[in-house]
Specification:
Mean pLDDT: 93
Radius of gyration: 24 Å
CATH architecture of the domain at 49-172 and 260-300: 3-Layer(aba) Sandwich
Order of helices and strands: HHHEHEHEHHHEEEHEHEHEEHHEHHH
Strand order of the largest sheet: 7-6-8-5-9-11
Structural class: alpha/beta
Distance between the termini: 53 Å
CATH class of the domain at 49-172 and 260-300: Alpha Beta
Largest sheet: 6 strands, mixed
CATH superfamily of the domain at 49-172 and 260-300: Bacterial extracellular solute-binding protein, family 7
CATH topology of the domain at 49-172 and 260-300: D-Maltodextrin-Binding Protein, domain 2
Shape: globular
Low-confidence stretches: none
Number of strands: 11
Number of helices: 16
Length: 382
């Protein structure tokens, strides 16, 4: 009898498992792929016309951002079997770096690649699409853009200028400041002359530093001659070729100004609207593929570069009290931006809402960051 009961129980469990959610689950399926219905019946046909576009950008060929743009163009060419060929041009080859936005907006070229913070002169909201001090990290940008309406907000903002944007290049967190001054406490930053750009420049100035923007090509000499006391320049893989570790003693972490640096490809709307539907879909997929590739590629390079940098400079961390003070000042500054700029307010509040909603899951999954065994059991990390 006992054997019969056990066999029957196993059979019932097997039926329940095979039957799926209708028997086993108490709630309806959680989450849907909204594209599925559209993809079930494709109503357009492959185009045969060959199209040639040009892409301009603010990047020189020595920067890894340039490689992200080229990767996107290569992906489109491969996926379309050459039917859409987007030729990339570095800064200055068609227009100067900071004229990229206007050149695409006016239709002088069909496509561009950018870090949107460059266009803060058009609207402060562009900065929030690129990075926010203590804001979204790489994971956060991906979720917010693709699942929380962030892409639609980006398209609305760029759309004001006759442009259609797509995320295409997430380089991750930036490094902190290279310096010969071991600044880990708030008072250490008082009077410190730092090269940086964007909102972080204003925040540092409010903390008593003397921050100034400076083109990348001028930073090494300024550091070497003592014109500035410290400088940040993007992620480790971007900073390493600059050679700052040859003339400084410390790298002050973390890079609170850019938890995740986001780039976009963008297209002249008239050119985009004229593009056959099948090629539009290929462009969208190529942009997503570039977003994924760029992040993984950059993080692998960042790890290698950071190890090389650590051979020459001491990696130091700001203390907790300093980070908290940085966070408070950044919050006040961002709130002032929101009060003055409606589009920035819309984007920032959307990001802040997502960050808040994500906190329960972030806390729940904490303390399992993949440190080495020796580092984890030391109790110095979480």
């Amino acid at each position: 009898m006992r054997k019969y009961w056990f066999t029957s129980l196993v059979a019932v469990l097997a039926i329940m498992l095979c039957a799926g959610p209708s028997l086993a689950a108490k709630r309806a399926k959680f989450g849907i792929d909204e594209r599925h219905e559209e993809a079930k019946r494709v109503k357009f046909k492959p185009s045969t016309k060959k199209i040639r576009w040009k892409m301009t950008m603010p990047w020189s060929k020595g920067l890894l951002f340039y490689d992200m743009a080229v990767h996107f163009c290569d992906s489109v060419r491969l996926a379309s079997a050459g039917r859409l060929d987007i030729k990339p041009f570095s800064a200055g080859e068609i227009v100067p770096a900071m004229q990229t936005f206007d050149a695409v907006s006016k239709g002088s070229v069909q496509a561009g690649h950018d870090w949107p913070g460059y266009w803060k002169g058009k609207d402060e909201a562009f900065v929030a699409l690129g990075d926010v001090p203590f804001g979204l990290d790489s994971e956060g940008y991906n979720i917010w853009l693709y699942e929380q309406g962030g892409l639609e907000l980006a398209q609305e903002l760029y759309g004001n200028y006759n442009l259609v944007p797509l995320p295409a290049g997430q380089s991750g967190q930036d490094m902190g400041i290279f310096s010969n001054k071991k600044a880990t406490r708030m008072e250490d930053f008082k009077g410190m002359k730092v090269r940086t750009v964007g909102w972080y420049m204003d925040i540092l100035n409010r903390l008593g530093a003397s921050a100034t923007p400076m083109p990348g090509g001028e930073v090494y000499l300024a550091l070497e001659r003592g014109v500035i006391d410290g400088a940040e320049f993007s992620a480790p893989a971007m900073s390493y070729p600059m050679g700052f570790d040859e003339i400084t003693k410390y790298s002050i972490q973390p890079g609170v100004h850019q938890p995740g640096s986001q780039c976009f490809v963008f297209f002249n709307k008239d050119a985009w609207d004229a593009l056959p539907r099948d090629l539009q879909e290929i462009v969208k997929l190529a942009a997503k593929e570039t977003q994924l590739w760029a992040y993984n590629w950059m993080q692998n390079l960042n790890a290698e570069a950071m190890n090389k940098l650590a051979e020459k400079v001491e990696i130091v961390q700001m203390d907790t009290a300093t980070l908290i003070e940085f966070r408070k000042v950044a919050k006040k500054y961002v709130d002032e931006i929101k009060a003055k700029h409606p589009n920035a307010k819309k984007i920032l509040e959307s990001q802040e809402s997502f960050i808040k909603d994500f906190e329960t899951w972030r806390k729940g999954r904490s303390n399992v960051t993949p440190w080495s065994y020796e580092t984890y059991i030391s109790g110095t990390v979480n």
